[in-house]
């Protein structure tokens, strides 16, 4: 859950209010160091669309379930856990 709003994480797709199931980890090599990971969240319906959006730009690095991502963050502290601008300018994410 998001500690600030106490609401479950939601999909990063513009206008979508569905619960997030997936984390799409990405990196823009023109802006970020190679190890940096920004994240978008996706519901089942928008996973492929958001993955394609990042993939055609060469930004997509990893797609994992939200539960797996949270376990990684809690266990190892890898990744920055920061959100990035969504595909339509929204800012949401892990």
Task: Please render the helix and strand layout as text.
Layout: E1 22-26, E2 38-42, H1 47-55, E3 60-65, H2 66-75, E4 82-85, E5 91-92
Parallel strand pairs: 2-4
Antiparallel strand pairs: 1-2, 1-3, 4-5
Written overview of the protein:
The chain is globular and about 30 Å long. It has helices at residues 47-55, 66-75; strands at 22-26, 38-42, 60-65, 82-85, 91-92. The protein is built from two helices and five strands, in the order ββαβαββ. The longest helix has 10 residues, at 66-75. By secondary structure, it is an alpha+beta fold. Strand 4 and strand 5 (91-92) form a beta hairpin. The chain starts with 21 loop residues before the first strand and ends with a strand. A five-stranded mixed beta sheet has the order 3-1-2-4-5. 20% of the residues lie in helices and 23% in strands.
Defining traits:
20% helix; 94 residues; 5 strands; 2 helices; 5-stranded mixed sheet; single chain; alpha+beta
Short description, anyone?
This protein is of the alpha+beta class and 94 residues long. The protein has two helices and five strands. A five-stranded mixed beta sheet has the order 3-1-2-4-5.
Which strand order does the major sheet show? Answer: 3-1-2-4-5
Question: How many beta-strand elements?
Answer: 5
Taking the alpha carbons of the first and last residues, their distance comes to 10 Å
Q: What structural class do the secondary elements suggest?
A: alpha+beta
Instruction: Give the overall pLDDT as a whole number.
Output: 82
Discrete helix count: 2
Tell the overall outline.
globular
Elements, N to C (H/E): EEHEHEE
**Percent of sequence in beta strands:** 15-25%
Low-confidence stretches: 77-85, 88-94
């Amino acid at each position: 859950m998001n500690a600030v709003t106490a609401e479950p994480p939601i999909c990063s797709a513009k206008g979508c209010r569905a619960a997030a199931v997936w984390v799409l980890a990405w990196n823009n090599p023109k802006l970020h160091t190679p190890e940096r990971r920004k994240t978008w969240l996706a519901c089942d319906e928008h996973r492929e669309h958001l993955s394609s959006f990042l993939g055609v730009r060469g930004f997509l690095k990893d797609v994992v379930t939200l539960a797996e991502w949270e376990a990684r963050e809690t266990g190892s502290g890898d990744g920055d856990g920061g959100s990035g601008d969504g595909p339509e300018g929204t800012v949401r994410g892990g």
